[in-house]
Design brief:
heterodimer, A: mainly alpha, 13 helices, 3 strands, 63% helix, B: five-stranded mixed beta sheet, globular
């Protein structure tokens, strides 16, 4: 792949801003890891060898306890199996993930009441929540859900926002005037109330939540796209393209859009941060994804209700601060990389 | 114009029609001759004879009342209890025998129509300002409660459609007619009017604002003596209270004064209590009993802790399965589901062992309880047997049972986010039986609406349970099945059960009703449509050592040990048994100053614990 000289320069500039660059690297690594989170954080073993046969329980069908000579037909408890096989007597071994708990499983003890504090011996590295679920497991899967939500939201919002904004700027006139009014009216619908009403009469799913958020979230991008399209439209190269006989779609797609890309790109990190906080806030208020979905908002509300067990609130607040800081650093770096004025600094 | 006239005309006919109906329902002009007057002087006393009068009982409320009226706007706040329970009712309910006992009325008689009770007002009964209580007060109560001026639609309706008529016969006898026949005791409970002093009220459109801060005369032992707005309210004991020496009222209501201070936060209230600014504190909440009620005041015996098991009607809490649902219409699945619910695990973990398992749908009604029934325990073997009998044999890739391409996944509708903790544990445990619970948390009003419209599969909820005997008609009769807006959430329709329910409702013999209730409860159990969940069969409280209780702490229907009035929330006249030992208070204060200590006080009373119902 070859980059245009300008893009190459921007990339060099981005790389030279260290904290943004490393944040981006780290976030990409975290995202990639969260895609395979089942291998790292799971109550299913990564690998089991039993009587000479190898099993890979992580993905695929559940394996009943009877598979490994246990007396139950529900899902095998691999932690117990690992202890039993390690004790010897039977041929086999179990390779457990580093965090051997799922985000849903209640690890409860007979003589002690949850939440349990962080402990290396029980492998609850960040402790458990009020029903004995592993905080780290819920953080990891909550992160994956929040990031997915945020990225899907971003894609939909930008697709609609850019299309409408470009059209408004390019055609102008009555079309522009009409859409401006539509957007003004639409942005005044109190979006939080809509979510509350929906959450009270039905259980919101991932997609209904995304749909509602897109319904009220696409407008902000239109204003920026409208103004930059207006600006670009009057430039000579657009006139030249038109003189050569290029069609309107071609002019928008091939000439105007690439020249407004800096506007789009600089907004992306902040939209991602916005998406994460929006979902967390909704979950915190109880209008988000239904229980028992792992979510940061749910952990946050549990943590603030149980300040006597500080590991819950500390874990989730730290995680949020770290992720949002990283996203902000990336945003800063991108903005600077795209800034034509070479010597502006954001300090 | 014509239309308006027609409307007016129709309205007039309606009013006349109402009048005619009233006349048909009204009580007779003359007292019937053949009435048999009864009273109840045979039940045991339940207060401690060694109780001492005196001292001030200091307690708190979370907000200052917006009015001192008993009815009308803003009258249903937390202070309302102090006003309402300082007004005696016609009869009270004995906390041990659960039978009616004399209160404002000394005797009562039942009309053969099964709807009317005549009461003889105690000749000594006085308002706190010395005016005798007469039947005219009751007649006034009827008009008062029906008046639009009090701005209380509930009372307007209740004293029109439920209590159909109230009428005086001479100064001392009053008749009360209810809407439909009931067994005698139910009649007195359900259609028992309160009484309003006629000489005090002047009803007009300004009543609500004019009477907002006026202290109404009352018939109970205490009278409001000081109101400091936003700060506190003080009640003073009338030393010459007319019922002082009545059998069921002597040695009760012992403190001379009750001072109720405003403390807006529960944790701050606890700090006030630890400092000795208030005398008692409720410890029902697990974190208070287990974690916060510790420290020198407790170890040194200055503050005592009490855990008192009682035996009261329990709110009917559980899972209510919709029998119209394609999966749940199969009784085997319902019973398997009951065996797949690990309630004990929930109790022993997130509920800290503080709750108990509810065994039957109705519980805590004394003789009515059917103690031979025990809720189905968590038992995966039995769950599998029942499921296999209905063809649920194969598990899908995720371990959930599958039959004809359908997964055994059931939606649990609930309305309280605080119950998510309990449900997630049940959900994880049910997976072992191959059943998936899909948790559907809605806003509580929407959840209840969905249940009332019978659109749920499993309803997770609690029915507030009050009254003298269990209710079956609204929950299990077939007239309430398959229609929206009724409480038969199970859509249970069984002709045999209908017959028993009708008999139960019509029967006027308590012995008969108890027997029918036992059979009905068995039928509820056999249907498998109700999976009972939890109950809290006790009260837990803390009190400074100078607050004394009888040796037996309370009676079986005591719902609050340190209740200064006749009752707090329940039906039974169980309150007002404690007293403040003023000399002991001086001694303890001195001991605290000198650093002297006593043995810690921890009393756990299981006399009334129904182990057969656990």
């Amino acid at each position: 792949m070859t980059l245009s000289p300008l893009a190459h320069k921007q990339w060099q500039r981005f790389r030279s801003i260290k904290r943004g660059y490393y944040s981006a690297l780290l976030l990409v690594v975290l995202l990639a890891m969260s895609c395979g989170a089942e291998l790292l954080v799971n109550n299913r073993a990564v690998l089991v060898s039993y009587h000479g046969t190898l099993f890979f329980p992580t993905y695929g069908h559940f394996l009943p306890g009877t598979t490994f000579g246990l007396d139950y037909d529900y899902e095998t408890n691999y932690r117990e199996l690992a202890v039993r096989l390690a004790a010897g007597g039977e041929d086999g071994w179990v390779l457990l993930p580093p965090v051997p708990y799922s985000a849903f499983e209640n690890d409860l003890r007979e003589s002690e009441y949850p939440p349990y504090p962080p402990s290396f011996s029980s492998r609850h590295y960040l402790g458990t929540d009020t029903t004995g679920r592993d905080v780290l497991a819920r953080l990891v899967f909550g992160f994956r859900i929040a990031m997915t939500f945020s990225l899907v939201l971003l894609a939909c919002n930008y697709l609609i926002g850019i299309a409408v904004g470009c059209a408004m700027g390019f055609w102008g006139g009555a079309f522009d005037l009409l859409f401006q009014r539509v957007i003004e009216v639409w942005s005044n619908v109190p979006f939080l109330y809509v979510i509350m009403i929906i959450a009270s009469i039905m259980v919101p799913t991932f997609w209904t939540l995304t749909f509602v958020m897109v319904l009220f979230g696409w407008m902000s991008m239109t204003w920026y796209m409208r103004t930059s399209t207006y600006k670009e439209k009057t430039r000579d190269y657009v006139l030249a393209a038109r003189a050569l006989g290029a069609s309107s779609p071609r002019i928008i797609a091939r000439h105007i859009l690439p020249n407004t890309v800096s506007v789009i790109v600089t907004f992306i990190p902040f939209s991602i941060a916005g998406g994460i906080t929006a979902l967390t806030a909704l979950d915190y208020l109880g209008f988000g994804l239904p229980p028992p979905t792992p979510s940061w908002g749910d952990l946050l509300s549990q943590g603030t209700d149980n300040l006597d067990y500080p590991w819950i609130v500390t874990s989730v607040v730290t995680a949020m601060i770290v992720v949002l800081l990283m996203v902000t650093y990336i945003g800063e770096a991108i903005r600077e990389a795209y800034d034509p004025k070479r010597f502006t600094y954001y300090e | 114009m014509n239309d308006a006239a027609a409307m007016w005309f129709r309205g007039l006919v309606f009013v006349i029609g109402m009048g005619a109906a009233d006349a048909a329902l009204a009580l007779p002009d003359r007292l019937p001759d053949n009435l048999v007057w009864v009273s109840n002087d045979d039940d045991p006393e339940f207060a401690a004879p060694e109780a001492k009068r005196g001292g001030t009982f200091r307690t708190s409320m979370s907000s200052f009342p917006l009015t001192l009226r008993r009815v009308g706007p803003d009258s249903n706040g937390s202070f309302a209890g102090y006003l309402r329970h300082n007004q005696l009712s016609l009869v009270a309910w004995h906390p041990v025998t659960r039978r009616p006992i004399p209160s404002l009325a000394s005797h009562w008689a039942f009309d053969p129509d099964g709807k009317t009770v005549y009461y003889r007002i105690d000749a000594d009964a006085r308002w706190s300002d010395g005016v005798p209580v007469t039947s005219a007060d009751f007649e006034f109560t009827r008009d008062f409660m029906r008046s639009k001026h009090i701005v209380a639609p509930f009372y307007n309706d209740n004293y029109t459609t439920q209590i159909v008529d109230i009428r005086g016969y001479g100064d001392n006898i009053v008749g009360v007619e209810g809407a439909s026949p009931r067994p005698p005791e139910e009649l007195m409970y359900e259609y028992g009017p309160s009484v309003v002093p006629k000489h005090f009220h002047e009803l007009d459109e300004n009543w609500v604002s004019r009477y907002n801060w006026k202290v109404e005369p009352n018939t109970g032992p205490y009278q409001i003596s000081e109101v400091r707005k936003g700060k506190f309210i003080e009640l003073k004991r009338d030393p010459n209270w007319w019922a002082n020496d009545r059998k069921y009222y002597r040695n009760r209501f012992n403190p001379d004064k009750i001072r109720i201070k405003v403390v807006r936060d529960y944790n701050i209230e606890f700090q006030h209590f630890l400092r000795g600014d208030t005398d008692t504190f409720g410890l029902v909440m697990p974190q208070f009993w287990h974690e916060k009620a510790k420290g020198p005041q407790f170890d040194n015996g200055y503050i005592g802790r009490y855990w008192f098991y009682n035996n009261l009607p329990q709110p009917a809490a559980g899972m209510f399965l919709n029998e119209d649902d394609p999966i749940l219409q199969d009784r085997n699945v319902r019973i398997a589901l009951a065996h797949a619910m690990n309630f004990d695990r929930v109790i022993n973990t997130v509920l800290r062992g503080d709750y108990a398992r509810m065994q039957t749908f109705n519980e805590g009604f004394g003789d009515y309880d059917n103690a031979s029934i025990h809720a189905r325990p968590f038992d995966l073997v039995k769950a599998r047997e029942y499921l296999e009998a209905s063809g649920w044999r194969n598990r899908g890739p995720d371990g959930i049972l599958v039959k004809d391409g359908q997964r055994l996944s059931l939606r649990v509708t609930y309305g309280s986010p605080y119950h998510t903790d309990r449900l997630v544990i049940l959900r994880e445990e049910a997976k072992k039986a191959g059943i998936e619970l899909d948790l559907s948390l809605l806003d509580s009003a929407s959840a209840f609406k969905q249940m009332q419209e019978k659109k749920h599969q499993i309803a997770w909820m609690t029915w507030a349970s009050q009254g003298l005997s269990p209710e079956y008609w609204q929950f299990f009769h077939s007239v309430n099945a398959h229609v929206a807006q009724t409480n038969n959430l199970m859509n249970h329709a069984d002709p045999a059960m209908d017959k028993l329910i009708d008999e139960y409702r019509a029967s006027t013999s308590t012995r008969m009703r108890v027997e029918l209730a036992h059979r009905l409860e068995q039928m509820v159990f056999d249907s498998g449509s109700v999976i009972p969940s939890f109950k809290v069969p006790y009260t837990r409280e803390a009190a400074w050592a100078w607050v004394k209780l009888p040796a037996w702490l309370g009676s079986r229907t005591t719902d609050a040990l340190f209740d200064p009035l006749e009752m707090s929330a329940g039906v039974y006249s169980a309150g007002g048994l404690f007293w403040i030992d003023v000399e002991e208070k001086r001694r303890i204060r001195a001991a605290m100053a000198a650093g002297e200590t006593f043995a810690p006080i921890l009393k756990i009373d299981e006399t009334h614990r129904r182990r057969d119902l656990e």
